[in-house]
Amino acid sequence: MGRFRSVGPLLACFLLASVSCGGSSAAAQRIYFVAIGELESGRLDTLQAYYKQRYDLTVQVLPLISLEPVVVDERRRQLIAEELIELMKRRYPEHARRPQAILIGITEGDMYIREFTWQFAFAMRQGDRFAVVSSARMDPVNFGFLPDDELLQTRLRKMLTKNIGIMYYKLPQKSDRKSVMFGPILGIDDLDSMGEDF
Q1: Which of 166, 3, 173 is nearest to 78 (CA)?
Q2: How many Å apart are CA 170 and CA 155, to the nearest integer?
């Protein structure tokens, strides 16, 4: 999405839905990662292997979804989080209808939540089955720093793991920064300081 305009206070992850203890058990659910727009080759495969190795969690990767004009706010030069989730639902209607399916979209495009006045969002959830995560503001390159793929991947994993914790494991947020369930995340400093484990 190109260089970003100056950003005010970093308000990152919108927790749209409250944690629900009901619904399908984790054992019956399936997690699907979906690349939305261009994504670095192999990134989803690496994430898939990470969750299998670290948590013995099977994550399925669905084919990439191309962006559509409706998901782009040309004035802001950002993607619209709500439209990205609707795009996932349209492209994968069978998964969207299946109560046991959890769909998590991953994009490298800068993203904001239309419902709010925030400058950007790392992630947005809709209910307990749909989420979209943007790595744009996690990438040091987009702020004029040298590339650091390890840092980028760590940040992305943290945000994905937190969403998996809420939607799949039904875990609440914590005030403990050692936990990946720490929240709220108000900026990149919070994301860097939180742990990676539940």
Answers
A1: 3
A2: 21
Instruction: Let me know: does 126 contact 133? Beta carbons within 8 Å.
Output: no
Return the sign of the alpha-carbon dihedral for residues 120, 122, 125, 126. Answer: positive
| 111 touches 87 (CB < 8 A) | no
Per the structure block, which two tokens stand in for 6?
Answer: 């100056």
Pairing of strands 72-73, 59-65: unpaired
Here the tokens at position 63 are 């084919």
Kindly give the residue spans of alpha helices, DSSP state H, lying in the chain: 43-55, 81-91, 93-97, 149-167, 188-193
| Token digits of residue 8 | 């005010």
Contact 72, 58 (CB under 8 A): no
pTM: 0.85
pLDDT at residue 93 in the model: 98
Q: How many helices (H) and strands (E) does the chain have?
A: 5, 9
141, 161, 137, 158: which is closest to 149 by C-alpha?
141
Mean pLDDT of 120-133: 96
Under 8 Å between Cβ of 46 and 195: no
